[in-house]
Amino acid sequence: MEYKHFSHQHNLNIHQVQQGQQLRCSGCESFCHGSVYACWQCNFFLHSHCGNATRYVKHPSHPSHPLILIPQPTYCSGSFLCNACGQSGNTFSYCCALCEVDLHVHCAFLPLEVSHKVHPHELRLTYSALEKKGAPQFCKICSKSLESKHWTYGCTKCDFGVHTFCATTDVKPGLYQMEDPADGATPEGYPGLQQDVCEAKEDQIEVELSEEALVQLYKLQLQMQMAEQVAQVMASMNLS
């Protein structure tokens, strides 16, 4: 079965990653496992959750504009800093070029609540670190500082906060779980991935209804971003 993804020029085939085989996802740069979409000609691979990610999301962390899925950052540096975790990236991201908001694909779909073995209560996702009278806050798992501009999981009742990537080290976000092929299934089966493909096609139908508006919005965001960059260059030249 072949699958066409907007970020790649060739059709992708379903591949079952074998034990000991090391393939990196071209969408999130993490190692692949289970069933993936593959283009062997280009060594291009996508996890199910990267390959089936919707073209845009209306994320509660940035309600002003939709975040658009782009295969590569539009910044001159060729990379972006994720507003959720603070880590850099140079592949897939959900982006609002107008506001310079960028999210890793996996960060964009973090669950609102998670459980972790280090704390008895549910930890809720917040879009900034828990504040306590201006005092610096530290992750209760790794003991490193919590940046107020980055997302955290926390329990306000207990003044307990952790980094998103610390909270999800042991906890697998349900939105990103993909069922492995059923035991004994034939290589052509992959029922878990087949279901993801069907669900993705249903999502694509909804997206196609506003595809033209989506493209126009993205172009407008890029134009405004470029205009701002030109203005900054001109200002620096005048100062010198």
UniProtKB/TrEMBL annotation:
Entries under InterPro entries matching the protein: C1-like_sf, DC1
Pfam families linked to this entry: C1_2
Domain of life of the organism encoding this protein: Eukaryota
Protein name: DC1 domain-containing protein
Ranges where the DC1 domain occurs: 60-108, 118-167
SUPFAM superfamilies: Cysteine-rich domain
Organism field: Escallonia rubra
Keywords: Repeat
